[in-house]
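Bit of a strange request maybe. I'm writing a small parser for C-alpha cell strings and I need a real example to test against, not something I typed by hand. Could someone generate the C-alpha cells for this chain?
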Amino acid sequence: MHNSVMYTEGVSVIKNRAYGHKITGNNRIIVCDQGPNTATQGDGGLYSSIHDLKKYLCFIQHNPLAQKMFVPNILPNGTNTKYGFGLQILKHKNYKIIYHCGETIGTNTIIGFIPRLGIEFAFMTALSGIDTEIFLKNLLRCL
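Reply from user aminoacidic:
Good idea to test on real output. This should exercise your parser:
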C-alpha cells in the first residue's frame, strides 16, 4: 500500500488529498477538516486511496494473518459486540457482512465485503452529515 499514510502534521505529505466539507446554515459549502486535536493516529489520521483500500480488502479476505480481525469481542457479561479488531460483523439472513465505518470532521466512510457473494463495497464522502450506514441498510434490503 503505497498511497496510504498515517498523517503527522508537518511531517506527512498527502498527494491529491480530499478535504472534508460541511453545509452551513445559509447553504454554503465550506471546508471543515481535521485539526491537530482530531486527526489522531488511527481515528481521523489515516489517509488512503481507493486503490489501497482495494488492497486492504483483498488482504483481510485472503491472508491468514487477518483472521483474528473476524473474532468478535465478547464482553464479560457474554454480550457479543459484533465488533472484531477494527471490523464490524453483521449477520443478515444467510449472509455475513464484514465492514468498517466511521465519520470524522467533514467525512464519512463505509468499506467492507460479503464473503458468500464475493461483493466488496466502499462508499466515501467528503461532506459531513451524510449517514453512510444508509448505504448498508439499502444493501441489506437487496439481499
